[in-house]
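Think of the structure tokens as a kind of shorthand, similar to the way a musician reads notation: each symbol stands for something richer, in this case the local conformation of the backbone. In the example below we present two proteins back to back. Begin with the first one, reading the sequence and then the tokens, and try to describe in your own words what changes along the chain.
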Amino acid sequence: MAPGPAAFVVMPWEFGPGVAAKAHGDGFRPPGVAAKAHRDGFRPPGVAVTDTESDARQLREATARLIRILATHDEDQAAEAINALLDEYPAQPCLVRLPGRPWSLHTKAPHDADPTHWLLSTTGLALGLRLSERGRCAWGQCAAPDCNHYFIDTGRRTPQRYCTPRCATRFRVASHRAQRGR
């Protein structure tokens, strides 16, 4: 997948499913969203990224909503959820070139929008494109028992099962060692 939405510094698959439960509780906030965005050279078009408590609360709620979509395996339910997201946060596509990266498709948020609007519209567009390109929910939760991260399936043949090659290798090595120990 193009680096568009994955370039945003606070994506739900970075936090895992625990965020869905924590999203409604106090005390959880993505660490240093504004600082990380500035360090990574991230500037969503027309949106100021800050570390206010209001932004953190809205990002928690947005993250929980996106995790519910990423946890969906039924194409019709995913399409319905993505369409609802795009109805609420319309995507105005634009090409953006982040430092050191190729051009990628993002969305422009209205001038009075907050980071959450941009996150939800861009991710909604990206997930909708992925679903339409693959004809299936080309995302999921890592199959490693000790990993709670989500991923976007970037493979071309067999469906992806692990969030990273490192996680897949760690799981295979542990399985091999367990078999040898019998």
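Once you have a description of the first chain, move to the second and do the same.
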Amino acid sequence: MTAKTQAEDHPRMPGQFRLEPSFAAEPFPHAVFDACLDPQIAEEILDWLGRDAPWNHVETDFYEQYEFSCYDATEDQAAWLTSRALLDELREILERTFGCDLSDEVSVVAHKLVSGHRIGVHNDFIAGEETHRFVVQLNHGLDDSAGGFLMLFGSKDPADVKRVLRPTNLSGFAFEISDRSYHAVSAVHSSIRYSVIYSFFAHVV
């Protein structure tokens, strides 16, 4: 059964999203999910990301990675990741978790970090743009020596680390984007760190 067919068979909950995340208000409002996706679906997506996904290499002054918009891909896995049922479910989870009202507009981007890649300290805040983000981690099992940790900061100071999260396969991380949502990804030393990032916008009346 393909990921697309599975999504059509389960229109309300195509994945196995945990509805009661671990929420914390500091250093900025965020929530951690233990298991976001059904393992079988995740394996199909990982296989696609590793073989046929249309990656583009991007390098800036503070990060280097491969990425692409899932809306630009035509495979079944991309259709599942961008299905209306899944996007609606994620929106409901974020609204319930953060007490917000989100629009139907959603950006869905996949990231791939390989050895040597990192993402420096940043907050993602741009006035009038995305307000909430949901990140799903996908990999074949990374031990601590592989790097790629998600780090949360109390300020833009790289020494002001408040929390460190392992990139555990199937785990999720959601947060409220603001001028204090400073975070980073430590350097990847081995293996491949995949993630799918859902970015939501506030509903404007």
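Compare your description with these statements about the second chain. Residues 84-98 form the longest helix (15 residues).
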